[in-house]
Amino acid sequence: MKTFRILYSIVALLLCIPTVSAQIIKTEQSEDITDSLRREFDSGPYFTLYRDNYFVVGTDPTHKPTSRNSDVKFQVSIAQKLTKSTLPGGTYLFLTYTQNVAWDVFKRSMPMHDFTFNPGIGLVKPLFSKERFIGKATLLLEHMSNGRDSIQSRSWNRVSLGASILVDEFICINGKFWIPIVDGENNRDILDYVGLFQGGVSMLSRDRKLGGSLHFVKRRGWNLNFNTILELYWRPWDRANQYFFLQWYNGYGENLLDYNVFHNRLRVGIVIKPRFFSEY
């Protein structure tokens, strides 16, 4: 029974954002839960989803829809665990890869407008406090580019430090800041639009079918300028990992080609949530 409870807790913890009451657990016995949980992390899957995987379509909600302000956006994101928790500090080495695509499906010939390629490598550390799992911290080296040449080429790199912390079984807060290495000749001012840090909160209903998140990316400067991402998702079936999805993006930097162009987009579609916390 004790082993079942630990397994149940780990599976529940890793089903996207905080989802179950077992996210903060204790047993009636004095066994070191931290070691037990770490063993379950070690034996978990090596290949997983990383960020949300979604397909959405939408337009600018404040203007009449046209082929210029309406599009499709989709994202594919995966991670590969390279080690068990044998590295210093009980950390894991991960490879990550995310590809985000802006697709002008309403234009003639339906061209792909831009791609963002985002590979990374780094360390992930599960966080424990007083025999309970409370979240994770990440240290990543990331590269971002759109794979183009000449005047349409965009690229930059960053070393990012982030954390996701469980407030309770229904609320998760997260934040990330980064040290940028801007090497693209055509996007030297990209930090004015994508900033240096971000933060947000994710919430889930008690029946665990309806969830949402709100995230802000602070653009460079001392004034109150933010890129805002609001997401809502609803799971129609108890055992499904597919959600109906609504995403609102308001700000700059939604794709690399147009990083300095303001976008206000409301889109709907389908999202598949990762087993680990959703990354942003």
Helical content (DSSP H or I, runs of 4+): under 10%
**What do the pLDDT scores average to?**
86
Q: Would you count the extended β strands for me?
A: 13
Q: What is the molecular shape? A: globular
Distance between the termini: 36 Å
pLDDT < 50 stretches: 1-31
Strand order of the largest sheet: 2-3-4-5-6-7-8-9-10-11-12-13
Strand content: over 45%
What is the H-and-E element order? HHEEEEEEEEHEEEEE
Radius of gyration: 20 Å
Structure, briefly:
The protein is mainly β.
Describe the structure.
The protein is globular, with a radius of gyration of 20 Å. A hairpin with a 7-residue loop joins strand 10 and strand 11 (226-234). Helices cover 10% and strands 48% of the residues. The protein has helices spanning 2-13, 33-43, 191-194; strands at residues 47-49, 53-59, 70-81, 92-103, 112-128, 133-145, 155-168, 171-181, 197-204, 210-218, 226-234, 242-251, 263-272. Mean pLDDT is 86; it is low at 1-31. It has a twelve-stranded antiparallel beta barrel with strand order 2-3-4-5-6-7-8-9-10-11-12-13. The chain has three helices and 13 strands. It is mainly beta.
Q: SSE layout and pairings?
A:
Blueprint: H1 2-13, H2 33-43, E1 47-49, E2 53-59, E3 70-81, E4 92-103, E5 112-128, E6 133-145, E7 155-168, E8 171-181, H3 191-194, E9 197-204, E10 210-218, E11 226-234, E12 242-251, E13 263-272
Give a quick set of tags describing it.
280 residues; mainly beta; 12-stranded antiparallel barrel; 13 strands; globular
